[in-house]
Amino acid sequence: MATTESSSDTESIDASNIEDAAPNSRTVSALTEVMTVLDSIGRARNADGLFLVNSGSGSEYLVDTRTGSCECKWKQYNPGEECKHQKRVAFATGERPIPQWMNDDALDDQFGMHVDGEPRQAVADGGVMQVRFDDSGVTDPEADPFAVHSEDEPRTKRAKQEDIDVSFLAKPGRYEIHSASDSRYEVDVLEETCSCPDVAERCKHLRRVDIEINAERVPRPDGKLPDA
Q1: 180: which residues sit within 8 A by CB, 6+ positions away?
Q2: Where are the beta strands (DSSP E) in 117-183?
Q3: Which of 10, 60, 120, 203 could pair with 127 in a Cys bridge, judged by C-beta atoms 3.0 to 4.6 Å apart?
């Protein structure tokens, strides 16, 4: 379910970027169909402007925002128009605000969870507000360890937003990560290592474990419970 941040971004936006007229069927599909947009794995890894879109049917398409291309068949027959996969990328990354007419409850729950940037929603005063997706209501960013802030690095944003389970594995400081893709990795917070394929110095899994420890949601590196 979509919930809005407690503060709004009132920057003006170009009305041409908002599809607030009669809903286009491809726009509705882009907003409501089950799709996962990924920007850091496979063919999209370390490539600016490239995104993998996995559909609910299991198909995968490469979207290139630099050339305005997509691998889907619809795009091949309609090269001058945007397909639903291109639209989904634009909405999920926050490049294009979600139209005002869209019912939040109809949005796909996976919206924007695996990409840099954050979905935005158009508001009546001509501005936009960021959209958060969770099962609760609006939370106080200062009290929420998973609140995303504008200064957060991309991997920190993913660490906060993605569906990641952290469990204590062994002391000193070893944790198991169960990711949304059903992959499992081992994080050692003392050695600052993770078994995932990310070559970054601090991957999203290391960051997520730090967040969970600081929020007292998992045992400390020495194995003691938070309230011990």
Answers
A1: 113, 114, 162, 163, 164
A2: 120-122, 128-133, 165-170, 174-178
A3: 10
